[in-house]
Amino acid sequence: MFDLDAIMKRAQSAQQKASEELKKSTEEAEALTEKLSEPAPRQTEEDAAARTEELTAANNQRQVEILGQIFSEDVMAQMAANQQHIQEMVDQRVAEASSAALDSVGMLNQLFGEDLGVLSAAMETLAMEEEDGEEEEEPEMDARWEAQTYALLEETMDRIGKLPEPEPVPYGKDTDRWQRFGILLSGIVSTINDHSLEGMDVEAHIPVLEQQVVSIVRRSWGIDGRSDLLDMIRYLSGEGYILRYHLYSQADSPEELMDGDEDEEDQENIARAWRFAQRYKEQYPPQFMAGWDIGRAAMLTRWGCYLGWITQGEAVGILWELSQKASEELYSWREFAQSYLFGGTMWKLLCGDSAVASYLGYLADAATSLIVGKGDEEGGQWRDFPWPARRKIGFAP
Q1: How far apart are alpha carbons 19 and 392 in whole angstroms?
Q2: 163 near 371, Cβ under 8 Å?
Q3: Residue 68 DSSP SS3
């Protein structure tokens, strides 16, 4: 143990002595500074400044030496011990704060359970959407790029066409089966967005997820409510890209498709989509676009029902009509997927978006997982639910 009284006495004595010496040193420095403030005629301003700097440095060094005499070795040892004690207290507080944070997480898990994981995943999805929305440098869309796009589309469609799929089966008057088929028509977009395909609702009814769906529908489609939604579904099911592809295929030049209000970029995009239609018009008729139109219309129907813009009964009726059209125009899930790839490529060209390769990759991955499954799955949801066999007479739901 230290004799604190003795230490304090020595410290006070040293402090008093140091104060006297500091005072004396300060007075001497001030006197020298005043003297230097009026330099001799032969002394330049630079010499005076240099001398003042030397004196200031010497004075500072002297003050440090004097201050070092204030505390003895015993006092310095005591101060070190005190500092160690303070550090230990700080470390203990930090540990307590960390423990409290962990307890808070545990409490949140107890309160919200699996919902907390859903909310976290939703926020990660939103963050990913923001990252995906950042602009990236795009390649120049010249003739070579178009040729590469065609080659990639054909290779991807050929790969999808070779996937194993059960033969179509008759659905008859089984309305539940038709309703299930209608939901699965939204499979590609649902898979890309990680939506549920088990029922009409695309997600659980949690505010953050509902807001995310609203954002997608408004930002990507310009749809802001029931009226806009129904108008878009009518367009896709009645005209859509079936009509657009037909018009572009029949036009003798891209200028026939313009009304004169297009800027240079729009003209280039129309010409690019026209060349696309001219290339494939002998191979694929306009009805081949049915999968592209119907798949998106089915997704909009489910989104609208989830948001409460249309009723469950209305959604069932719309999906019934879409299901009938799909079964009349296409023959299998593979052809439906190929149609989606084909229509999506023309859409990208018409929008002037050069990111076709990555887009086709997303679509092909989604279609593949729906047909053959993911990971250890033996089959996807499309493969487990065969395409409806063609029939001459339809059945009302």
Answers
A1: 111
A2: yes
A3: helix
Q: Do 307 and 287 meet the contact criterion of CB atoms below 8 Å apart?
A: no
Read off the amino acid at residue 134. Answer: E
* Both structure tokens of 356: 């076709």
Domain spans, the chain: 4-71, 141-372
If you search the block for the tokens 């040193």, which residue do you land on? 25
The runs of H, that is alpha helices, within the chain are 4-36, 45-68, 73-112, 114-132, 143-161, 175-184, 187-192, 207-221, 226-238, 240-250, 264-280, 290-307, 312-329, 333-351, 356-372
Task: Give the model confidence (pLDDT) of 260-280 as tens digits.
Answer: 888 999 999 999 999 999 999
Is 60 exceeded by the pLDDT of residue 66? Answer: no
pLDDT band at 142 (very low <50, low <70, confident <90, very high): confident
Chain mean position to CA 238: 33
Question: How far is Cα 96 from Cα 386, in angstroms, rounded to an integer?
Answer: 59
3-state secondary structure of 156: helix
Check residue 388 and report its DSSP letter. Answer: B
Cβ atoms of 273 and 248 closer than 8 Å: yes
pTM of the prediction?
A: 0.65
Calpha distance 339→285 (Å, rounded): 11
Amino acid (one-letter) located at 292: W
Q: Taking phi first (over 0 means left), then psi (-120 to 50 degrees means alpha), and beta for anything else, what does residue 170 get?
A: beta
How far apart (Å, rounded) are the C-alpha atoms in residues 35 and 46? 15
